[in-house]
């Protein structure tokens, strides 16, 4: 890069980024819980149009010798940079969606292209390279070719090497070491901070020895110590991705189980507690007056409050029968439920452990169901379990039988507390039924459960 752009221009850019607080130094606790002496937030660039134009131009120069038909920014910070490159140099742009639309074409890549077109990926900061790789992977799924990516700042933590393994050459405008060298020379940071940052980079390199690009496995991070955001970014399954997204945005890892028997009561309850939950769980076969109108009201509430619908049907028959049960009958679960579940006793399917006392779902059963889930990860998003059963980031562990005060009921249900489930047993999401639906002020109580469960998750990832 240094050969294409003058040293002075790069040095001035580094100081400008520092001045607009796109680069900060101190003690920053990252979402992963790690303390970092440097923090980058290049989203601020959009507030400085001249700088945004300059950065886009430098990214374009970094790609000057390359042949490409279109550009695609990694969402979100790099989107405006890719837009400026596209407009200034008359290069068609492609937009990568984070989530497929629920209607229409369900495309993940927007824009016109021909199969085999070469696309240049644009990114603001690269650490492990997993965000760039995710975008590349999607473009390749859509029959585009990708050989190169340009980035404003390479943190030099293994991203270049990792992307190389996937056939992508990373071209960076700036590197972390150059950045701290210049800032020290310009008197913006002292030598102690410079050394601290360089040591941090040295000791926090991502392992690039794996052959394939699931960055998270290579980071050797355990699911239980990762943020929901990181896990959403790593998940390939779109429902899992969407759920992690909702959990992160609503700061909720609470599912409410609305086991009421009259549809009007269910709708009223869901509207009250909807703002606090990421999932509403139903048992439609206990509803006395089930109609299609109930489903459409529930779907409207799911949109209004942004939650997913989980029909707790616990399928357990042969594939052919389950297909009829799931897609047909009077409930037509497949038409409206985002999530449903199955026992694994009949063979491959989804997994379940029970919270009731004396349940038989232990040992080998759990091991086998985990294997089935891994073999069908395009279809499986997680497990019903009382303790985390695996550290695969994409699988969500959901725990029913939760009450703030613990205890049990007269029919064998055993309750655990939100903290015990999420912090001690390291599961992700708590399912609460009567603890919320059986009280006089469900909305306030749902919020209490939300706060307790989310605080336990935050405590866990900051360990
Ligand atoms: O092992 C399991 C599997 C599912 N459930 C379901 O969760 C709720 C719990 O309701 P509470 O009122 O909080 O007891 C209910 O719908 C069960 O069918 C479970 O409890 N245990």
From TrEMBL:
Keywords: Decarboxylase, Glycosyltransferase, Lyase, Pyrimidine biosynthesis, Transferase
CDD domains (UniProt xref): OMP_decarboxylase_like, PRTases_typeI
Domain Orotidine 5'-phosphate decarboxylase: 253-449
Pathway membership: Pyrimidine metabolism; UMP biosynthesis via de novo pathway; UMP from orotate: step 1/2; Pyrimidine metabolism; UMP biosynthesis via de novo pathway; UMP from orotate: step 2/2
Coiled coil, from the record: none
Cross-referenced InterPro entries: Aldolase_TIM, OMPdecase_AS, OMPdeCOase_dom, OPRT, Or_phspho_trans_dom, PRTase-like, PRTase_dom, RibuloseP-bd_barrel
Gene3D superfamilies from the UniProt entry: 3.40.50.2020, Aldolase class I
Pfam family, one: Pribosyltran
SMART domains (alphabetical): OMPdecase
Protein name listed in UniProt: UMPS-like protein
Organism: Mya arenaria
């Amino acid at each position: 890069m240094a050969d294409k752009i003058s040293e002075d221009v790069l040095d001035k850019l580094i100081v400008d980024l520092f001045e607009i607080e796109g680069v900060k130094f101190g003690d920053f606790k990252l979402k992963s819980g790690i303390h970092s002496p440097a923090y980058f937030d290049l989203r601020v660039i959009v507030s400085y149009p001249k700088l945004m134009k300059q950065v886009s131009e430098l990214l374009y120069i970094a790609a000057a010798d390359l042949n490409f038909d279109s550009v695609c920014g990694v969402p979100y910070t790099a989107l405006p940079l890719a837009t400026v490159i596209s407009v200034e140099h008359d290069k068609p742009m492609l937009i990568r969606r984070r989530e497929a639309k629920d209607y229409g074409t369900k495309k993940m890549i927007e824009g016109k292209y021909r199969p085999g077109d070469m696309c240049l990926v644009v990114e603001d900061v690269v650490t492990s390279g997993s965000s760039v790789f995710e975008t590349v992977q999607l473009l390749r799924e859509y029959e585009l070719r990708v050989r190169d990516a340009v980035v404003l700042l390479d943190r030099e933590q293994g991203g270049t090497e990792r992307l190389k393994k996937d056939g992508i050459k990373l071209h960076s405008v700036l590197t972390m070491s150059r950045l701290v060298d210049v800032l020290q020379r310009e008197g913006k940071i002292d030598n102690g901070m410079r050394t601290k940052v360089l040591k941090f980079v040295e000791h926090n390199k991502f392992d690039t020895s794996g052959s394939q690009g699931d960055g998270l496995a290579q980071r050797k991070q355990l699911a239980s110590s990762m943020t929901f955001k990181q896990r959403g970014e790593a998940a390939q399954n779109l429902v899992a991705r969407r759920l992690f997204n909702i959990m992160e945005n609503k700061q909720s890892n609470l599912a409410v189980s609305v086991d009421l028997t009259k549809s009007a009561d269910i709708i009223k309850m869901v509207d009250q507690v909807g703002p606090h939950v990421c999932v509403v769980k139903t048992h439609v076969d206990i509803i006395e007056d089930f109609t299609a109108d109930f489903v459409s009201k529930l779907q409207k509430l799911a949109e209004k409050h942004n939650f997913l619908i989980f029909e707790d049907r616990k399928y357990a028959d042969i594939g052919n029968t389950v297909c009829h049960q799931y897609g047909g009958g009077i409930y037509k679960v497949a038409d409206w439920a985002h999530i449903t579940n199955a026992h694994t006793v009949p063979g491959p399917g989804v997994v379940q452990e029970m919270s009731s006392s004396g349940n038989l779902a232990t040992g080998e059963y759990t091991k086998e169901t985990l294997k089935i889930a891994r073999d069908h990860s395009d279809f499986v998003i997680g497990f019903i379990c009382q303790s985390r059963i695996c550290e695969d980031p994409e699988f969500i562990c959901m725990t029913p039988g939760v009450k703030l005060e613990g205890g049990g009921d007269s029919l064998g249900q055993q309750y655990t507390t939100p903290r015990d489930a999420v912090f001690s047993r390291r599961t992700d999401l708590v399912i609460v039924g009567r603890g919320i639906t059986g009280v006089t002020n469900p909305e306030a109580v749902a919020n209490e459960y939300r706060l307790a469960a989310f605080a336990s998750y935050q405590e866990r990832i900051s360990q």
